[in-house]
Records
---
Amino acid sequence: MSILHPFLSRVIRKGRLTVIDPDGTAEHFGEPAAGFPEVSVRFVTRTAMRRVILDPRLGAGESYIDGDMEVVEGDIMALIGLLRMNTPWDRGAKLKDKTRVGRWIEGLKTRLGSINRRRQSRANVAHHYDIGNDLYRLFLDRDMQYSCAYWPRPDMSLDEAQEAKKAHIAAKLALAPGQRILDIGCGWGGMAITLAQLEAVEVLGITLSVEQLELAQQRAEQAGVAGRVRFELIDYRDLAERNAGGFDRIVSVGMFEHVGARNFETFFRACANMLTADGVMLLHTIGRFGKPGATDAFTRKYIFPGGYIPALSETLAASEKSRLIATDIETLRLHYAATLRHWYANTLSHETQIVKMMGARFFRMWCFYLAGATAAFESGGMGNYQIQFARSRHALPLTRDYMAEAEGRYTG
């Protein structure tokens, strides 16, 4: 037990963590506190304990996935939440910068891991999104929105919150009949189809996922909008080379995280070139509350290879070089946390089906991923940004009133 004691006694102050070693010896950390979970963990091997010390995030994840670390009281969501809650990003403590070497190492890992040339981008997308549409149907909403929902009321269902998200974004696009819309990273087509249902617009959705493309095309046919909504398997960089100034609006939801830090400027240059002179873009992305950082080893290895969550400063700095004007920025602080808790609950409720489909090891990996992401949005340094860009200062009304008016129509 001495292996873990220095680390856990320093971290766990509120809430209760009981650690049981392979010999059955139990040690307790922290004190019970309102709002903090009580969790018990049993290690099957001492090797698993050492893995946690050597690399807490990756080591704990792999020990849990392999079955060498078992949560016997509470669940993995409670365990990761307890650790994060004791060290919240916005805790108000004295700030200490990393050393120059530490910052350099972080930056190097991020940029080497997210070069994302065209072929690598397709492989990275396939790693996560081409694992089967049936899995995503089990834990997402009816429209299969795999991004942060929007919760104007806490009592909304996941389906309602995702519908509210699409209406919220549509209102910021300032849609008008006859416009040509580009949806970069269209997923299973829900956003593109919704935009065509809300207004008489034409939409092109692009993706690098074969599984997403096929289902999106089927759904457009079923919704009766296939004449105005089409989908294509193409990289945004390749599309930009053949479509200069062809789109009145661009929307991108949950895709910028896959672009890679080295490609931010390329992404915005492509978007600017594909917009008309008075075009408008709405970017919805996960973002860091603080300064630039690095993608953790667990996420790089198991979830989003090549992915990187940008700081707001990085996003804006890259967009400015393409003369895109940031006309509106909204920070969604806890909306993704609420979304992830629904996904986690849905995953648990379909455990039997997911294990049969993907295996028990995958199920534990998926639970660890969702639990870690939830903690990052509840107590860590992650949030969501919706950034509206325009090429011309005259492209949009001078006040934000039009957004509320349109959102009211779309949700009424």
---
Amino acid sequence: MKRLLTVVDMALSKGDFILVEYNVRVKETNTLLDTTDAELAKKENIYEEGKVYGPTLIILGRGWLNESVEEELLKHDVGSEVEVEVPPEKAFGERSPDKVKTFSLREFQRRGLSVSVGDVVEVEGRQGVVKNISGGRVTIDFNHPLAGKTLVFKVKIVGKLEDTVEKLKALASRYLKIPSSEIEVSLLSDEKKLTVTIPGKYLSKRDLGYSKLALAADVFDTFKDSVSTLVFQDVVSRPS
């Protein structure tokens, strides 16, 4: 039997499970950074194979989207469309000239590394972008690529989840990166036993084991009064 999604229209508060659609752009260039819209992602050449598009789960107060954006969402109801500008200090920070360093090209050559302008390299435990190579010196920028940028979030609050099983299913979809329509979730309340069933076609999915552990940790923390055992069930069907 198919479970109908329960969406409740009411004021929001921290800890609520909500479904949102959103676009994130760089204000200065209008560059699209992230979106839940697959067609828009394809149109602007940021589409990612394997990413789950469509309404996505946000637990308000966790900062999964952006703390400033979530604070603004708390002022609105289900169905609202919200636009929030997030300044650099509340996004990826201001650019700092102190994070631009110069190294000897020989150091890279000794390590057997060939570097070019634009390469992302790791030096002294930090990742940076090679900005210039000249006179035997390599200039690396350790600022975040979005440092100094203002981000514009356009968010639509699609729904709020109230049913425990629906919350668990949405949480499983987020962690496992599998569409919720392809995941089956059942909860035996008396035994506090949660079973998450995953189609066999996802068994080779990268980092699936880690994702399962991360999901389990969150479930046991968030639903400690409802779930004490989590079973993952992988279903492999014979090809027709």
